[in-house]
Amino acid sequence: MATGKQKTAARRNIKRARTIQSRRAHGARIGKMSRGLSTRQQNRMRSTTFAFVRKRKEPLNDARHVRNAVARFDQVEGVTAAERDAAWKRIRTAARKFGVTIEARGWRSLMKGGKTGRTRRRS
User: Fold this and answer.
1) What is residue 30's three-state secondary structure?
2) Mean pLDDT along residues 7-26
3) Could you tell me if residue 6 is inside a domain?
4) Rounded to whole angstroms, how far apart are CA atoms 94 and 31?
5) What pLDDT band is residue 103 in, cutting at 50, 70 and 90?
6) Cβ atoms of residues 102 and 70 within 8 Å
7) Inside any domain, residue 47
8) DSSP label of 50
9) Judging by beta carbons within 10 Å of its beta carbon (0-12, 13-18, 19+), is residue 60 exposed, middle or buried?
10) Which domain, by its residues, includes 60?
11) Can you say whether residue 26 is alpha, beta or left, with left for phi > 0 and alpha for psi between -120 and 50 degrees?
12) pLDDT value for 92
């Protein structure tokens, strides 16, 4: 259940989004708010620029994306250990290219406590 404050904020955000969309439709050039990649930019990227090639997850096109790929490595689901090995190699190569230092010894040390981690619940 949303609070009154949350509902007010949601209405304000929707109104702002509609205004921007209308202005863009009428020819105004309004830049993106986020610094991330657009869907169009991601679709145009070669699959080899992603850490997980088959799933096209975790782009490695600059230092910020490399740091993000390391931070979210344990959140990628539905990949095998071999795919994780290959992705880790691509991440390390991109980190060297962009001057990002990675303190983790390997990808298995990143898997503690994430969604795909091997921790078991104790009853």
Assistant:
1) coil
2) 92
3) no
4) 28
5) confident
6) yes
7) yes
8) E
9) buried
10) 36-115
11) alpha
12) 94
For residue 14 the two structure tokens come to 């929707």
Is the separation of the CB atoms in 52 and 76 below 8 Å?
yes
Closest by CA position to 110, among listed 82, 78, 84:
84
Task: Say if residues 56 and 42 touch (Cβ distance below 8 Å).
Answer: yes
Is the full-model pTM beyond 0.70? no
Backbone phi and psi for residue 54, each to the nearest 5 degrees, phi listed first: -65, -40
What domain count does the chain have? Answer: 1
- Neighbouring CB atoms inside 10 A of 68's CB total 15
DSSP alpha helix (H) spans, the chain: 4-25, 39-44, 63-71, 81-98
Which is more confidently placed, 44 or 111?
Answer: 44
pLDDT at 82 over 90: yes
The two tokens of residue 57 are 């997850």
User: Given a cut of 80, is residue 69 above it in pLDDT?
Assistant: yes
The pLDDT value given to residue 42: 82
SS3 11: helix
In a domain, 8, yes or no: no
In a domain, 4, yes or no: no
